[in-house]
Each structure stands twice: as C-alpha cells, then as structure tokens.
Write a structure and sequence with these properties.
- This protein has 2 domains: 242 residues, Crotonobetainyl-coa:carnitine coa-transferase, domain 1 (Rossmann fold, 3-Layer(aba) Sandwich); 80 residues, formyl-coa transferase, domain 3, CATH 3.30.1540.10.
- It has 15 helices and 12 strands.
- A hairpin with a 5-residue loop joins strand 7 and strand 8.
- Helix 1 crosses helix 6 and helix 6 packs across helix 7.
Length: 382
C-alpha cells in the first residue's frame, strides 16, 4: 500500500531523543525526512554506531555547517522545499542563525515549524539544560513511579522523550498539516516534554481531585500497590505481570492459582493488600512461568509473561503479528499503526550522517564542482 505521508517532505535538524523519534515515526509513515547533521559530530546523548541508531531509519542525511554562510544558505534552500521542519534545540538557537520561524516563513509561507524542547519556548526554565528524567520530575509523572519504600525510579526515557515528547510533536505536526489544507498558513508547534508528560497524567489528576489517589507511592491500584496489579516472580526466576482489576478477571486469576475467594481477605480494603500479596507471591512461586501460562491459557485472567528484548521477538503472538522486523540483521519494532489491516513496508536502514549530501545538493541544482568547493570551504561534509 502507499504510505499515508508519501509526498510530504520534512527537514529535521539532528538532535537526540524526541526529535529523532518524531522524525522516525513520520518516516515510517512515508514522509521524506532529510536530516541536517553537523559537519563535526556532537557529543550529546549516548554514542551509538549509526548502524544501531534505529531512530535514524528511513531517513536521508546531509551534513551542513549552519554557522557558515554557505551552509546556512543550503539549509534555507532545503527548508524552502519542505512541508515541515523539526527544531530540537533550546529556544532561540535557530533564531541566532537566522533560521528561526520568522526567517523561514519569509520564503516558505506554508511551513509547519515543529519545535521540541524540554521546558517549552518560554517561562523561567525555558533555557535550562535537562533530560527526560528532569522533565517528568517536573510534570508529576516521576513521583508516582517506584516501589512503596523506594526512591522514584526512572522508567527508561519512555515518558518524557517519547510518549510526552516525540509523540506530541508528531501530533502537532500532523494537526498543523491538516489545518494548512484549510488555511494555507504556516504554523509554529511548541511541543514541551514537561507539558506532554503532564498531559499523559490527566487520568491521575482526575483521581487525585476525586480523593482516590494516595500520595504515597506504591499504595495505589496502578502503581504496583494493589496485589492484583503487580509483577510476581515464578519458581524458575521468571516474572509474570498480573492486571486483574475487574472482578471477573480477578476471580479467574484466583482460579488459575487454585485459590478460593472465601479464603482471601477483602481486596477492597487496602489494609489487606500486603496479606493478599504474600498469598499470591507464595502461590505463584510454587509454579514455573510455563506452568502459570499453561494454567491461564484460554482463561481471561490478565496474566502475561514479562519478556526482555530478546524474548519478546520470539513470542508467538508477536511473531504472528510481525510486531518486530529485521533490517540488516537487526531486530527492531516494525512501523505502527497499521492501515486497512496491513502493516506498512519496512523502512530503509539507519542513515549515516552526511550519507546523502551529494545527492541532496544535486537535487537542489548544484554541480559536482560546486559540491567540492562547498566541502573545501567547510560548508558541508560527506
């Protein structure tokens, strides 16, 4: 099938975390993503050989020195041909280089200018340095994650960088592109990881307002406090996830463990949670992971194995659905979502910085001799 974003061109200034993730999502959906890399690699983020830098899959790359007059001119020419732009820098960085929204809108009046920051484009912390952990600590998300008596635990960088960052940038860009069909106007997207991760907490703000959220971490239904929404270790040192919230699933869960509800303390009373957890923990530890899964097969008990990255690609459901794909010998998640019940075709492997510099410049009308001159001046690299 034709990918839904085929025909759209997006220029992405290379960054780390949410910006590259947003670009990857858009590339998976068919947009042409041209990544502008530095001529000299930065030391930001976690160093990773480009072959394994999966957030760069499906993209093209040009290496430009945007502090150089010619490099900046080439960036401007690329942006003039784009439907959207991804700016991963702190507020004001691209303005200082005359590549900010006002500058770009002069020659591309329909450009969607997507800005991805931690704290937003304004406010007292707008120019502070930070990473995912800092943003979710400020949004209220981090405080609720961790065991009852532990410190708040980093949930990888899934909530700030990806869930509350890259995803919201993509939502903003796609919304602006839809709006442009009616208005023919440019738009600036201000996507902040603090605000995005706060948005993910909407349900919990409602629970808190209703007096249904205990401020003590690990003492609520969805934070691992409830014995029926928790992970448990099996006899063979594996783990299962139990999410038997509704009564019908809870009763089935007890059935799997061969437990009679008459002998289990009332789960509605939080004071009983520790006792119930001890009963479940001991019972589950009598069984291997395969035993538990066999007993729960065909029964809606909300029991699943906790799989690591190597195990999940071998899971029968994931194999059937082709949840994971292999590109150049590297297993990775396939494009999502699906359209008309069909999986989108595999993207190309991660691009090497500057890999497409020559071809991109030739498409802009430059000759081989021009390109050599740009390289000798330090305006580009390849």
């Amino acid at each position: 099938m034709i990918k839904p974003l085929k025909g759209y061109k997006i220029v992405e200034f290379a960054g780390i975390g949410p910006g590259p993730y947003a670009g990857m999502l858009l590339a998976d959906l068919g947009a042409e993503i041209i990544e502008i890399n530095r001529t000299i690699p930065s030391e930001n983020g976690i160093p990773l050989p480009h072959r394994y830098d999966l957030l760069r899959r499906g993209k093209k790359s040009i290496s430009l020195n945007i502090k150089d007059k010619d490099g900046k001119k080439l960036a401007n020419q690329l942006i003039d041909t784009a439907d959207a732009l991804i700016d991963p820098f702190r507020p004001g960085v691209l303005e200082k280089l005359n590549l900010g929204p006002d500058d770009c809108f002069k020659t591309n009046k329909k450009l969607v200018y997507g800005r991805m920051t931690g704290f937003g484009q304004n406010g007292p912390m707008a120019n502070y340095a930070g990473h995912d952990l800092n943003y979710i600590s400020l949004s209220g998300a981090l405080a609720g994650i961790g065991e009852k008596d532990s410190n708040p635990l980093p949930p990888l960088n899934l909530i700030g960088d990806f869930g509350g960052g890259g995803n919201f940038l993509v939502i903003g860009i796609l919304s602006a592109l839809l709006s442009r069909e009616k208005t023919n106007k440019s738009t600036i997207i201000d996507a902040s990881m603090v605000e995005g991760s706060a948005h993910l907490m909407t349900l919990f703000f409602g629970l808190n307002a209703a007096g249904m959220l205990d401020k003590e971490r690990g003492n609520n239904i969805l934070d691992g406090g409830a014995p029926y929404y928790k992970t448990y270790k099996t006899k063979d040192e594996k783990w299962i996830a139990v999410a038997a919230i509704e009564e019908k699933f809870y009763l089935n869960f007890l059935k799997v463990l061969n437990l009679d509800i008459k002998n289990i303390p009332d789960r509605k009373d939080k004071n009983n949670w520790h006792k119930i957890e001890k009963i479940f923990s001991e019972k589950i530890y009598e069984n291997s992971l395969s035993d538990i899964l066999k007993k729960s097969e065909g029964i809606d008990s909300c029991i699943t194995p906790v799989l690591d990255l190597n195990e999940t690609i071998k899971n029968h459901h994931n194999i059937e659905r082709k949840t994971f794909i292999n590109i150049d010998g590297i297993d990775q998640p396939g494009p999502a979502p699906r359209f008309d019940n069909k999986q989108l075709s595999n993207p190309s492997p991660p691009v090497k910085p500057g890999e497409n510099t020559k071809d991109i410049l030739k498409n802009l009308g430059y000759t081989e001799n021009d390109i050599v001159i740009f390289k000798n001046k330090g305006s580009i690299n390849y």
